[in-house]
Amino acid sequence: MLLIRPLVPADFDAVWPVLRDVVRAQETYALDPEMDRDAGWRLWAETPRATFVAERDGVVLGSYYIKPNAAGPGDHVCNCGYIVAPAARGQGVAGALCAHSLRVGREMGFAAMQFNSVVATNTVAIGLWRKHGFAIVGTLPGAYRHATLGVVDCHVMYRRLDAA
Amino acid sequence: MLLIRPLVPADFDAVWPVLRDVVRAQETYALDPEMDRDAGWRLWAETPRATFVAERDGVVLGSYYIKPNAAGPGDHVCNCGYIVAPAARGQGVAGALCAHSLRVGREMGFAAMQFNSVVATNTVAIGLWRKHGFAIVGTLPGAYRHATLGVVDCHVMYRRLDAA
Question: Which of A60, B17, B18, B87 has its CA 20 to 30 A from that of B43?
């Protein structure tokens, strides 16, 4: 039974190592690989509108944040970031987080959700976002320096939240 | 004779009213329309890698900033924002700023330039960016609430700096 609930500060002891390793790997996120825990906290927990964790049997397996993707006349579009602990991958955690975020985004009044930079080689994520209603609406040629694959494209993915 | 040079703090007396009015108009930028001067300074002059002004006969007519569009494995793509004073529009100032920014972006070692949110109704800007080598690489349906035209699309525009 996977429980998704708001993050509390103590959760970051479990979230940070996952976030740190994902960022260091330089395979999926366009974030500073040398980011320290304080910067990670600001990015993941402080700046966003809300942050959630997924836990099973009291163990945090993943997390996501939700925030406006732009300000003013663009603040009806939200953005989310998701991470899942390596040991918990392939168990539907990311899909559960995404489904939760779509519901929360709607509840917060957002009209659409946008992922700005989905690394084109991250086919597992792309397939999952497609399954959850996202379309690739743009491709940025060579916008990501993958740690092992070199320079690769990024996709912009988008879905409305107000559509049926 | 248009001179483009780095912004100094005193220039912001001329830049801020232009930026403020552009942001308040809610026709082109996805920024907080209630932004105050301090927030404007942070956005336009403090956060970016560099900020320039265009002046003619000692009068500041426009300005642009340049910064990385993402961090870590995405920090080889830059982003710019441009503003031109209403009285100076239609005189090639934006084009001169764009050409300057492409050169500066290359000098700074960026491999590409990306505009994340070009409002689809801003056809003058879109035409100008196309002329300067940018392509529409994606379209975000309904991503902008235009003050007078209602909900409109945004384009993502992109060009390589390292290509011939």
Answer: B87
Inform me whether the C-beta atom of residue B154 falls under 8 Å from chain A C-beta atoms: yes
The answer, as to whether pTM is greater than 0.90, is yes
| Best mutation target, A31, A77, A115, to test chain B (most B CBs within 10 A) | A77
Tell me the chain A residues in contact with residue B142 when contact means C-beta distances shorter than 8 Å. 111-112, 160
pLDDT, tens digit, 9 for 90 and up, residues A30-84: 999 999 999 999 999 999 999 999 999 999 999 999 999 999 999 999 999 999 9
- The DSSP bridge partners found for residue B81 are B65
The tokens describing A68, both together, are 């406006």
Enumerate the domain spans of chain A: 3-160
Q: How many helices (H) and strands (E) does chain B have?
A: 4, 7
* 3.30.450.20, 3.40.630.30, 3.40.50.720, 1.20.1250.20: CATH of A3-160: 3.40.630.30
Question: Across chain A, which distance is largest between two alpha carbons, in Å?
Answer: 42
CB-CB under 8 Å, B141 with A158:
yes
Nearest chain B CA: its distance from A73 CA (Å): 5
* Count of Cβ atoms closer than 10 Å to residue B58 Cβ: 6
